[in-house]
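Worked example (supplementary).
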Amino acid sequence: MQMIALIILITLLICFFIGANDSPVIVQPSIQNNDKTDKLNSNFWLMIIGEILGAIFLGSIVANTIINRIVDLTPLYNNIDLLFISIISILIVVFVFLLASQFIPFPISTSHTMIGGIIGIGYLFKFKLFYPAILKIALIWILTPILGLVAGFLFYQSIKFFIFKKKNPQSFPFLFLFFLIFIFFFCLKIINKLDFSSRIVITLTLFSIIILMVYLFIKNGKRIKNSSDRFKQLYYQDSKQVSIEGIIEEYEGIENLFKPMQKILLPFISFAHGANDTGNAISLASLFIYIYILNRGKIFNLNLKDYQIQTLETCIAILLLAGSIALSSGIMLLGRKRFSKIKIENLKISPIRGFCIYLASSLVIILTSGFGYRVSTVYTLAGSLLGIGYSKGFEIFNSKLLIQLTISWLFTFLLSIVSTYFLCKMFMMLFNLNIN
Amino acid sequence: MRKYSTIFQRILPEKTIISLIEQHASYLIEASKYIKKALNNYMDRIDDDDLIESLSSIERKADGIKNEFRDLLRKALKLSFEREDLLEFIHIQDNVIDSLEDFGKLISLNLLEISITEDIKTLLFELVDEVIKSIDEYYILISNLEKTFYLSYSKKIIEKQIEIINNLSDIEHKIDLISLKLGKWAFSRKNELNAIDIIHFNNLVIILSKIPNMIARLADKILDFLK
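After joint prediction of all chains, the assembly is encoded as:
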């Protein structure tokens, strides 16, 4: 019983700190210089909705990938003590890395640490490692920020072409419509892997989002047209009479039309983050509880056979819900507080740039998740931001961060393999445990 | 307490190139406010040390921004403009502030002993007004530069910026004509006036007339940035 309590506690703490660490990054592109605190709060709430829905509906795909596609852990299923030592070693390493990430100058991905930890256990017990799957995952880790960069670059270039370089910036909704169609098809691809009830819920959610987007698309399209017509009148009747400030104001009006679009994309990004990160964090705890029930039949003096908690899927589902609540608490209790320390006036992410970051990242995350790969939302967002930088969207930016990110994940990954290996070995020596 | 920063803040530095240029240009505006007073002092034969001190203080502050600007460029971050162009730009803008300070200093070196006719006085004040006007127009260009950039060089904004740049060329031409008249007047009095006074007067006119030239060069650089 203590084993389960300890594993659940560390898992929930991991979820809490993931929420605290990642939420300021995810929400940042949706906040502009002049935004008030209530807008900030509403964006955090939107994020939480996305995180919980993502964890509940898609988290199990990620959790199953972590459990089944990295290392064959089945030889440990008959030795509950050794399984506990292995899982607790991985979770401790993940948790320590997560805490350490607040004191070092580069981000640490929990999924890289978690997968590294599982590989460390695989090496220690000489288990079968699924190298092709691991290589694919590693490749996707490198590819996603790069894809984010390319998508960010292309989207920002398109926006420049469709809005800023045109005399009448009315064409942008077509670009947006194209994205909606794209997004819809990829979502359909993902939900085909789920059971019938989940498919119904997700289809209905997606349908509502798309209806909302189409509504805004039509409404904003009209506003852009009205603004553009008014502007045309002003400009062509007597251009000398129109001040530069007047023209800037008109364009800023168009920029502001992207704010509601950001609000729609924010829960969408959070949905992907919730699915990936909560699924990842709870995977090993779910596996342990499932194996524990199989071996011992009951926890907390409850005969679990009476409560239908007999399958791995049920364990995953329950922990996903608990994990998403812990992650949401991290967002609201710590993430929001951290974000308030950021000087909003120094953020140079305009609504259009924020929209492009979300648009590019959603596309990349949907694409990769659609093929069943675990991706880092934060890395993808950073890649998209750099893409906008390369598209001359920022006067000055740190282009070397992409290299730093790659080094960071490689370092985290290797260090987590070594740390888990030695931590688990130390525990085995302490508790006199042996694989045989 | 450790400063919290997200990955985005590590990508985007807090201070930007254009914001520093704008900050530096604000000292230009501040310095330009003193040149009319300096000319009045010259006409009324008043020695005003406070004015020189104020101009020197502005120049020092502007130098601080210039150094900050250079430090930012040295950090090897990716820029949307050519590094050399930016360095040249801030160098010219700083020279304009230096010229204003030099004008203030030079005017105090030699108190006026010659009698200046009313029409020449008017021309001198017109010259100063045009210099101030060119600085003001230039500041409009600079103060909208950040927004021009963040609105991705929108066609209509660039057209407006070009209008301002053309205005600056007109002012430059007007100042050239005024300074030529003033120079001719000074040298035509070579038999009546003290040679030092003539050279001093002429140097004052030259310093002022060079300012719009430098501003026109800055405007051309901005035009290159906008492309």
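Two points are worth noting when inspecting this output. The longest helix of chain B spans residues 155-188. The mean pLDDT of chain B is 86.
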